[in-house]
Amino acid sequence: MKKDIIVAPLRGLTGKEFRAALSHHYSGITACMLPFFSVTESSLPDFKRFSHNFTEEELHFSAPYLTIPQLLGNNPAALAKIAAMLVNNGYDYVNLNLGCPMPQITKKMRGSGLLPYPDKIAAVLDAMMSVPNLKLSVKLRLGLTSCNDIFQLTDVLNIYPLYEVIVHPRLASEKYSGVVNLDVMKTVLPLLKTRVVYNGDITDLGSFFEKAEMFPSIEGYMLGRGIIANPALAEEINNGVTVDYDLWYRRFVEFYSELIDLLEARKADTTSRLKAYWRYFQRNVKDGKEVYSQMVRKKDIEDMRLHI
Ligand SMILES: Cc1cc2nc3c(=O)[nH]c(=O)nc-3n(C[C@H](O)[C@H](O)[C@H](O)COP(=O)(O)O)c2cc1C
Known about the structure:
Layout: E1 4-7, H1 16-25, E2 31-33, E3 37-38, H2 47-51, H3 56-59, E4 66-68, E5 70-72, H4 76-88, E6 93-98, H5 103-106, H6 118-129, E7 135-143, H7 148-159, E8 164-171, H8 182-188, E9 196-199, H9 205-214, E10 220-223, H10 225-229, H11 233-239, H12 245-265, H13 270-281, H14 288-295
Parallel strand pairs: 1-2, 1-10, 2-4, 3-5, 5-6, 6-7, 7-8, 8-9, 9-10
Helix pairs in contact: 1-12, 4-6, 6-7
Bound molecules: flavin mononucleotide.
Residues 8-13, 35-36, 70, 97, 99-100, 139, 168, 176, 199-202, 223-226 line the site of flavin mononucleotide (FMN).
C-alpha cells in the first residue's frame, strides 16, 4: 500500500522558498505542513496577514501537494476562529501543534506545554472540531517530561473524529537529541483510534524501512531534517531505491540554485538562511563537512552557488 509522505514544518527551514524549490525539482510528496502560525486571543481572522507564508502555487491551489497550515496556541476560541478563516479560504485541513519543545513556548502552556493537561487540550479540540468542514489533525510528542502524558491523552484524542495524529516519539525535554522512543510508539499505536502518521529521524531508506517494518499499520510518514538533507528522500522512499550520486548531485545543484534565487527575490538575509540549510545539506553532499566549513565562512551569496 502506498503511504503518504508529508514534509514536516521546520520554522526557518521549510518556508515557502524551500517548499517551492523542493516541489519544482522532486516528486513523491503528498503534503507539506507549514511552520506554525502563533494564535493568541488578539489574532485577527485576516487571511492577508497569513498569506505571505504561502507559495504562489499554494495560494492558487496548484501545488502538487496538499497544503496544511499549522496553528500553535492554547486559546480555544481564538484557534477555532483562525481555523475557520483558513477553511473559508480553501485550506480545510489544519494541524494543531502540540509538540513544540522550546521553553519560551512550553512555559506559556503552548505546543508540548499543553501535553500534561488533557482537559485543556479537550477544550481546544471541542472548539476547533465545531468549525464546519474542518479536517483537524494534531502533531505531538510523547510528553513534556514524561511519557505518561501521551497515555493520559489517548482517551481524549479518541473522543474526536480527528483526521490524523502525527506522533514524534520523543519527550519535549529531549528536544531533538538522543534517539526516538520506538518502544513507547509501539505501545501507543494500538491505543489510538485515528490514522497515525510517524515522524522522527527518517534520514534514508534504511531508517525508513526500520519504522515501516516495525509499524505496518502506520499510514503516513512525516519527513523533517531528512528531506532537507536529501531533497530526493520522498522519491527514494516511494521508489524503494537510492539515486546514483552523480545524478543526485546534478539535481541537487538545480534545486539549490532555485532555492537561492527564491531567497534572493525575497531579499531575506540569504547568506545566513543558506548557512542554516548547509547544516543539513552537508550530510549528503560529497566531502560535506569540508563544503560546510567553507560555506559558513562566505559573505557573498554568489560565492555560495554550486556549479556542476
Ligand atoms: C529548526 C526546527 C524548527 C521546527 N519547527 C517546527 C514547527 O514550526 N512546527 C512543528 O510542528 N514542528 C517543528 N519542528 C519539528 C519538526 O517538524 C519535526 O517534528 C522534528 O524535526 C522531527 O522530525 P525529523 O527527525 O524528521 O526532523 C521543528 C524542528 C526544527 C529542528
